[in-house]
Design brief:
InterPro entries: ICL/PEPM (IPR039556), Pyrv/PenolPyrv_kinase-like_dom (IPR015813), Pyrv_kinase-like_dom_sf (IPR040442). One of its GO terms (molecular function) is oxo-acid-lyase activity. It holds the Pfam family PEP_mutase. This is Carboxyvinyl-carboxyphosphonate phosphorylmutase. This protein is α/β, with parallel strands linked by helices. The protein folds into 2 domains: 4-240, Phosphoenolpyruvate-binding domains (TIM Barrel); 243-287, no CATH class. The chain has helices at residues 4-14, 28-36, 46-54, 64-76, 93-106, 133-146, 160-164, 166-178, 192-201, 221-227, 237-256, 269-275, 278-287, and strands spanning 20-25, 42-44, 82-85, 110-114, 153-158, 183-186, 206-209, 231-234. It has an 8-stranded parallel barrel, surrounded by 9 helices. Strand 3 (82-85), helix 5 (93-106) and strand 4 form a beta-alpha-beta unit. It is globular and about 65 Å long. The relative contact order is 0.12.
Length: 290
């Protein structure tokens, strides 16, 4: 769970030249695995969290209550700071204040807020529409006023590039920066040239969303760093890999009535027991055995 100390460390880390790479976490196993690997930061992906928790599309169907529940569970199981997807703030200005307050109390190191109309849609998917820039500016100002810890990161995302073009997206990002956002996130640039233009436009921490099969070119973190980005999130890598592995092993189970052929490729049962904390359970049982 993020504390004042861990949040301040993340804030300082994002201002360093070396880019921060944050894997997407979407369920408790992914949180525990990523936390054990000592990343500088994790990212709670909306797409993956909604899919794993509710089995529905990330299209504005999950509620604040659904998501803050996951924020609390993920952050409570992690010593690594987690930036959490807060969608549109789940409503108007009062909702934004409640969301920021709830996410911060639940242990998040930061919140991502976006300028989409409600119901929102997942980034890199079609049909995203944005609210007037002044409305989003007010949301960011409310978020900044509401947070209790000044190191709690408010990440302002604009989805304007896909429907209104890059220049409008950059204009919005500038307005959100002036409103107090700590990190800027221009979603779905569609070329290296656009990434370069974003990087040259701002001298503050910039987030880039790396989605395998998405709209944005796939560049190595070192290349993204040279273009001016401070944080690269990989929201889909984990759940896409898990889905592929499940498809393979379930297919084998159905076809061959067993998993002997793929057992060596699986995460070991012993390591899974260790990851989930069974060693402490067994030690407790030994201590309190009758």
């Amino acid at each position: 769970m993020a504390t004042t100390n861990t949040r301040s460390k993340l804030k300082a880390r994002l201002k360093q030249q070396d880019i921060v790479v944050a894997p997407g976490v979407f369920d408790m196993i992914s949180v525990r695995l990523a936390d054990a690997m000592q990343f500088d930061c994790l990212y709670m992906t909306g797409f993956g969290t909604v899919a794993s928790y509710l089995g529905i599309p990330d299209a504005g169907l999950a509620t604040y209550t659904d998501m803050v529940n996951r924020v609390s569970a993920f952050c409570g199981a992690s010593t690594t700071p987690i930036i959490c997807d807060g969608d549109t703030g789940y409503g108007g200005l009062l909702n934004v204040a409640n969301t920021v307050r709830g996410y911060e109390k639940a242990g998040a190191a930061g919140i991502q807020l976006e300028d989409q109309e409600f119901p929102k849609k997942c980034g890199h998917t079609p049909g995203r529409r944005v609210i007037p820039v002044d409305d989003m500016v007010r949301k960011i100002k409310v978020a900044i006023e509401t947070r209790e810890d000044p190191d709690f990161q408010v990440i302002a995302r604009t989805d304007a590039r896909t429907s209104l073009g890059l220049d409008e997206a950059l204009r919005r990002a500038e307005a959100y920066l002036k409103a107090g956002a700590d990190v800027l996130f221009v979603e779905s640039p569609e070329s290296v040239e656009e990434l370069e233009k974003i990087g040259k436009s701002f001298d503050v921490p910039l987030l880039v969303n790396v989605v395998e099969g998405g709209r944005t070119p796939q560049l190595a973190p070192a290349e993204l760093q040279k273009l001016g980005f401070s944080l690269a999130i990989y929201p889909a890598s984990g759940f896409l890999s898990v889905a592929k592995a499940l498809e393979q092993v379930y297919g084998e189970l159905k076809a061959l009535k067993g998993t002997v052929a793929s057992e060596r490729e699986m995460y070991s049962f012993a390591k899974m027991c260790e990851l989930m904390g069974f060693a402490q359970v067994w030690e407790f049982d030994r201590t309190h055995a009758e």
